[in-house]
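@channel sequence for tomorrow's demo:
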Amino acid sequence: MELIKGTDPRLKQTCPEFNFETGYTMEDGTVLTAQQLYELLRDKLMEHRGVGLSAPQLGIMARVFVIGNPDEADSIIGVFNPMIVDYDQETVVYEEGCVSYPGIFVKIKRPRSIRARYRGWNGESGTTRFDGYTARVFQHEYDHLNGITFHSRANRYHMEQARRFKDKAERKLKSA
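structure tokens (generated this afternoon):
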């Protein structure tokens, strides 16, 4: 299973909740349990060297993502049916990238911390506070579940700057 391209319309769709009783039925009829879906996303996150990966980035339309360090499988958590219940008023501008849009890095303003409620792959639910970089990654992946791409959160100047930088890098690679 490969990542879908950034132009795929599924990346702009809101995902339905994951059903723990029935699992997720793939196009070929295979049913993935929560644990299987978590393991698939975790393995793809590690393969692509990301810090977050959402199910829709693999064409799986379910409210599920993983976040963590791609060098430490045990650090990667599965997030099922998340809901952000509180946003910090303080915001931070920081550069973000996305494995669905390789080579694009753009400055995005997001709340510094959040409080989120979600279930793990084992069905247990809880509420957790995320701060700093982890809060940013959580919000980025949460946006994917709502059909929001990271560059749609960028202002026009930062987006143009990111495209120019990508074009320049590609020209440099071709001439090398």
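heads up for whoever presents: The beta strands are 24-25, 31-32, 52-54, 64-67, 77-87, 91-96, 106-111, 113-119, 125-131.
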